[in-house]
Specification:
By secondary structure, the chain is α/β, with parallel strands linked by helices. Helices cover about 30% and strands about 25% of the residues. Helix 4 packs parallel to helix 5.
Length: about 230
């Protein structure tokens, strides 16, 4: 598997675990506010980290590093993903996968093989407005919806999350997106934070955490979501 970034230690990317973090390159979306734009558009600009380097680190830090987060880009596009995860799991390390949900067959296979411990899936927008959030990409919404159902019914720890953009996502949109993940364990409204690596920098505006929390309170708790909350800048 081609790894285009490796962070040896993170305390924030895997809930309640000390983890390492790997980034894959390439994505089938072009979300204009993506903070990892370089990984999406031109991953070859970054040096490649060999899987063996990750394995050696996890072995060396065994008992300290509890989990590995695989993010991107879009990891489910990567050849060799399953074999990579299996090697990590064989070391006794928990695996969290970040995904946009466009490859439900890959997701389902990893779940059925018992290779995932936590899944985080991005919900970009209300399904009827998805194209406005993913750039000039095409999306098969039936695949995204299938991934939502697979994750909710998996029995695994999971979260759905939306990076909320002022002017793109309204309060009504947020209520509808909560409807889209009925039955989820966690739905998180992520505060948009401007970064230099965006595909379309200096374009978007953010809600404050207070505004997001107010929206959640106004929407209420009628969405059968165990935990519905806002998340600010780390």
């Amino acid at each position: 598997m081609q790894i285009k970034g490796f962070q040896k230690t993170t305390f924030i990317d895997y809930p309640n675990k000390v983890a390492s973090l790997v980034f894959t390159g390439g994505c089938n979306f072009r979300c204009p506010f993506c903070h990892n734009g370089g990984l999406v558009v031109n991953p070859n600009q970054y040096p490649t980290t060999l899987p063996e380097t990750v394995f050696q680190h996890l072995q060396k830090r065994k008992g300290i590093i509890e989990g590995l987060v695989i993010t991107g880009g879009e990891p489910t596009l990567m050849p060799g993903l399953k074999a990579f995860i299996k090697a990590v799991k064989d070391m006794g390390v928990a695996v969290k996968l970040d995904t946009n949900g466009t490859n439900p067959s890959v997701l389902n296979d990893l779940i059925e093989e018992g290779l995932l411990d936590y899944i985080a899936m991005d919900i970009k927008h209300v399904f009827s407005k998805y194209s406005s959030a993913i750039g000039p990409s095409r999306v098969d919404l039936s695949q995204v919806k299938e991934s939502v159902n697979i994750i909710i019914n998996s029995g695994l720890d999971h979260e759905f999350r939306t990076t909320v953009i002022k002017g793109m996502h309204t309060e009504n949109d947020i209520a509808l997106m909560a409807d889209q993940v009925q039955g989820a364990k966690n739905y998180i409204l992520q505060q948009y934070v401007k970064t230099e690596g965006e595909i379309m920098p200096n374009t978007f505006k953010s809600y404050t955490i207070e505004e997001l929390e107010s929206i959640i309170e106004a929407i209420g708790t009628n969405h059968k979501i165990e935990c519905f909350k806002a998340r600010g800048k780390y």
